[in-house]
Amino acid sequence: MPELPEVETVRRVLRKDLINLKIVDIKIKYKNIINNDLNYFIDNVKGKTIIDINRYAKFLIFVLNDGFFISHLRMEGKYFYLNNDIDNKHIHVIFYLSNGYKLYYQDVRKFGRMEYKTKDELYKTEPLSKIGYDPILENGYDLDKIYNEIHNKKREIKTTLLDQSIIAGLGNIYVDEVLFKSKINPHKESNKITKEEVNLLILNTKDILNNAIINKGTTIRSYTSSLGVIGNYQNYLLVHTKTNCPNCNNKLIVDKIDGRSTYYCKLCQKL
């Protein structure tokens, strides 16, 4: 699944190409991609001009001259911006643009979703209303609030950090990196995390995600190459997909937490 740095990279690339283009037509091949009624989505998006592209957590927000449509790439969603035709069974939505180009949405797993929202609905209704603190968009943070939200969970800290309603944008790769840098074992119970550790988690999340954005994300499973961008942050990963701890050279443990491969050092990361 693309994480916050990969979604931010997609946003930046698309923004260069799509601003001030009108969506003159839409073809939807797989209707379940759209959360709205199909006709409602088409009626409210077709004929609108894209005036900006924003991001909130892992969601792309296409800002139209009237309203918005949000796009969640989920597991395998990708965009292609092309002036030629492509046709494969994984292309599910095509936006025809006023400059003759097309914006193709491809999704092998069909898990991605799009939804039109009015200005009043955007942040007041799900999914964005359920999103927590975005460590890139928001400079300040309420440490007590985030600490209480984490401390009230009786589950492993990795699972809690994957919960987008507390700290938004973290996925499997970056949670492993943040926990390693914070010297916290991923199996540690959330209700045993101290306020000092929560502050450290937030600061390291900001640092790691910002560095990943600078390096255009992590290309382990590619989400940005469809737009001609290859991420480099995989070259800076400390534990995820690695064999030995970069601090003590001890062999890293690879466990499954919530079905996700989790890399950590049992010597450097304490319960």
Which labels suit this protein?
alpha+beta; 271 residues; globular; single chain; 6 helices; 4-stranded antiparallel β-sheet; 25% helix
Cα radius of gyration in angstroms: 20 Å
Widest β-sheet, arrangement of strands:
1-6-7-5
Point out poorly predicted stretches.
Answer: none
- Overall morphology: globular
SS-based structural class? alpha+beta
Order of helices and strands: HEHEEEEEEEHHHHEE
Oligomeric state of shown chains: single chain
**Which percent range fits the helix content?**
25-40%
How far do the termini sit from each other? 27 Å
Total helices: the number is: 6
Could you describe the largest sheet, including whether it forms a barrel? 4 strands, antiparallel
| Number of E-state strands | 10
What is the strand content?
15-25%
Mean pLDDT value: 94
Describe what you observe in this structure.
The protein is an alpha+beta fold and 271 residues long. Helices cover 25% and strands 21% of the residues. A 4-stranded antiparallel β-sheet has the order 1-6-7-5, covered by helices on one side. Strands 2-3-4-8 form a 4-stranded antiparallel β-sheet, with helices on one face. Strand 6 and strand 7 form a beta hairpin. Helix 1 runs parallel beside helix 6 and helix 5 (172-182) packs across helix 6 (195-214). The longest helix has 20 residues, at 195-214. The chain starts with a helix and ends in a 7-residue tail after the last strand. The model has no long low-confidence stretch (mean pLDDT 94).
Compile the SSE list and pairings.
Blueprint lengths: L3 H15 L4 E6 L9 H8 L4 E7 L2 E6 L3 E5 L4 E6 L8 E7 L4 E6 L5 E5 L25 H9 L5 H5 L10 H11 L12 H20 L38 E5 L2 E5 L7
Helix pairs in contact: 1-6, 5-6
